[in-house]
Structure formats: C-alpha cells, structure tokens
Amino acid sequence: MDRPPIVAKCDRKRVFSSWSPYCGNVAPREFEIEFSSVRCLSPQEFIEKLAKDLGVSGVVAGENYRFGYKAAGDAAELVKLCEEYGMGAYIINPVMDKNQLSISINSSNPNDRGQVSSTRVRRALAVGDMKYVSELLGRRHRLILKAKNQEVFTYNKHKLSAPKSCLLNLAPKEGFYENCYLIVGEKLVPCRVVIDTAQIHIEMDDIGTSNYFGTEDLKLLRIEFGNSQS
C-alpha cells in the first residue's frame, strides 16, 4: 500500500505558489512523467530526454542528488551533462535542521547528517510534535480530508467529525492538538483537533459550525496545525 503524502496532491499548487518570492516572483508549476519511462535511462539519456523531449532549460538539485539507472550519476556529472546539452545546472547545499533536540527521533538513519528531509518530517508527525513539523516545513502542516462515496462529515454546534478514511495526506499521531485552524473559504477559524483510532474531531468554542457551513453538504475539510504537541 502506498504511504500517504505529506502534502495532499490537491494542495501542492498552494505550496508551490508560496515559493514564488524565491523564484523570481514566478510560482513553479508541476509536471509529472511516468517513472517507468525514465527508470532505465543512463545519466546521459536522462539529461538528453530533459533537454530534447521536455524542453528543460535548467536543473536545480541538491549536492547528494543521484540520477540515471541504478543512481549511476551524481551532482558533478549532472553539471557536466547539462553543460553539454546547453542547460543550466544549479547545485544547492542542503537545508539543515536547526533543532538540536531532533537527534532523538532521527538517529537511526546513518545517512542523516542533520538535513531537512521528508523522512524527518514524517518522524516528527509520528510523535505529534507540530512545532517541530512547522520548523521543518517552513509553514504550518495542512491536513485535508475529502468525503468519498457514502462517507459524510458529521457536525453539531461545537464539533465536526470525519472518518480517517477521508484523509488525503499524512496526519499526526493520535492525540489532542490545540492552536489549530479550520479553513473555511478565506477564514481561519480557531479550533482544537482530536485524532483517535477512527476519526478526526474538530472542536470549536463560542461559534457553532452551522454559522460557517449552514445546511451545505460538507465534502472537503482543511485543517492547519499550530505549534502544539500531542
């Protein structure tokens, strides 16, 4: 079974848009190709495909990047091949984790030199440390749930619940999370989140859920986690 992504596929465009200040005020666009179409290519064949078939003008990669069949190519070869095919190549240093306490949940990986990685984010979610997750991502973690088939979200005056089967991305561990937000349109509604074995519960004070949703059928929930720990 495929493991859930950290960012829901439907939320990736929002994340890319947040990168625009670092990309010449242009939001990156995602383009997917089937891995099966490139998995057996040599490093040179892979770069040739980027240049000739896909019209790529430049490549950005980390210093430990490997590519080509059996990861035969490294960052140095990437620069060399890109130059041969008239493309720019930019090798960047890893973003390092500044949290000195993180070693306790990341020490099992011998290749971990302290760099930010998806593995590190997943482990932080697994222990429910949302402050640490926010530091690693550079933003609050957003959880998205979508009602499918006969599944429904249920709500009353102060509580909204959804089955875990509606999750589109990776949730933190079971527990109680304060300082969260339910996103309704452009509004951030303060809430608390309780995650149990089967459900995600969203609790709100003062203002009932009906004030935000009325009688509309609920199909999509977006939750942002604050800097709390389960």
Automatic annotation (TrEMBL):
* Entry-linked InterPro entries: FAD_synthase, Rossmann-like_a/b/a_fold
Enumerate the GO terms in the molecular function aspect.
Answer: ATP binding; FMN adenylyltransferase activity
Q: Which GO terms describe its biological process?
A: FAD biosynthetic process; riboflavin biosynthetic process
Record pathway: Cofactor biosynthesis; FAD biosynthesis; FAD from FMN: step 1/1
Q: Which UniProt keywords apply?
A: ATP-binding, FAD, Flavoprotein, FMN, Nucleotide-binding, Nucleotidyltransferase, Transferase
Q: Which residues form the FAD synthetase domain?
A: 38-100
Q: Name one GO cellular component term.
A: chloroplast
Name of protein: FAD synthase
Q: Which organism is it from?
A: Cannabis sativa
